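Async update (no meeting this week)

Hi team, since we skipped the sync, here's where things stand on the single-chain job. The sequence we agreed to prioritize is pasted below, unchanged from the tracker. I ran it this morning and attached the output directly underneath so nobody has to dig for it. Comments welcome in thread, and please keep replies under the output.
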Amino acid sequence: MIVEPSLPILIVDDYKTMVRIIRNLLGQIGFTNVDEASSGAEALEKIHDKPYGLIISDWNMEPMTGFQLLQRVREDKDLAEVPFIMVTAESKTDNVIAARKAGVSHYIVKPFNATTLKAKIDSVFTTAAVA
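Output:
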C-alpha cells in the first residue's frame, strides 16, 4: 500500500526541537499535512477536532506520557484504529512490551533518520492493509 503524501499526521512531543526534526524528516519523505501538539492533552483536543491518519508521539512527556496518550486513543472507539508510532530515547524491553500490549503500531528509538521513519510508516500501513 502506498501511503499518500497528504495523509494528515500529528506529531506529539514536548520538545520543540524534536517536533522540528520529525517534521523535517516527514517532509524529506514527502509528507506535507503535518500538525503538532506539545502535550498529550493538546493532542487529544486536536485528534477530536480533525481526523488524523497517523499519530507519532514521544514516550517521555509530562504530565501525560506518550504511553498514556496511546492508552486514551485506543480506549476511544472513534480513534482506536488510528495508527500510532511511539518515539523514545529508551529501548527498554518492558516499555516495548507494554506499548505493544496497549496497541502501538510501531516503535522508533532515537536517534533515527528519514529512511528509518519511512520504513516504520510503510510497515504500519502494510500491516494495516493486510490485517
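Quick observations from my side:
The two ends are 12 Å apart (CA to CA).
The CA atoms of residues 8 and 52 lie 5 Å apart.
Reply here if anything looks off.
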